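Continuing the series of single-chain predictions for the mutant panel. This is the parent chain; the variants come on the following pages.
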Amino acid sequence: MPTTPARQRLRALLDSRELIVAPGVFDGISAHLTKRTGHVAAYLTGSGVAASGYGLPDIGLVTASEMAERARMIAGVLGDIPLIADADTGYGAPKNVVRTVRSYDTAGVAAIQLEDQAFPKRCGHLPDKRVVDAAVFEQTLAAALDARTDEGMLVVARTDARAPLGLDAAIERANRYAAAGADIVFVEAPEDIGEIERIAREVGAPLLINLVAGGLTPPVSVARLKQLGYAVAIHPGQLARRATAAMVAALCELNGTDPTTHRSGTPTAFFNLVGLAEWSDIEARYTPTEACAWA
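Parent structure:
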């Protein structure tokens, strides 16, 4: 398919070497407001879609078709504003990844993000993440790159290896994924400014950083990220968290209850509002003890 103005715009933004700040969008109004307030790009947040669209925590419960349909609607609202879209692990084996990429491609996203977690994935700022072998994810990347009909749709490769395997392994994977053809690479959840700086020094590709309020990565200013050479900064929880807090305040005002009992200042607290504890109990109930050793 021919490329789109949004894809051309994202490529031009990357080429300008200016930091792209992308708020996390998850529904029609968040997309409209992002466009109307003058943002140059947006990020389709899987966690926001899971919570707002389906009342679920971000632990691999939302399907490829559900995400692709949300991507289609939001890309339509944004128009020429590029949408970087979360696609989790690609939702299965390489053949599933091919279908996912085709769906996101026709939906009109400017970039698709894939990650090397084992399925079912978890929010990058929750504990107990597992990753697949780097060679396995390279096959995911190969399938994604071959499946896109327009090279203007960029592929973002995310590694979650920092938590289970350490920063050295995460940086090694990021460089491997760049060599395998990823247009942008994303080391999830560095835990301090030293790690953020080291990633910038040692990864030879355009870099995306995920800034989650209350998450594992500390806040970093736009000026500092520009200085370090990061290409994209996503803020997936900024809108969803503030909207949630406002709804809690309004609801508690209506019935005279205490809003502080529903705080969502961390990813775990936010997902508990949509059933994380209950879903974790279900997972534990059906997971054999010997399969619970996390990589």
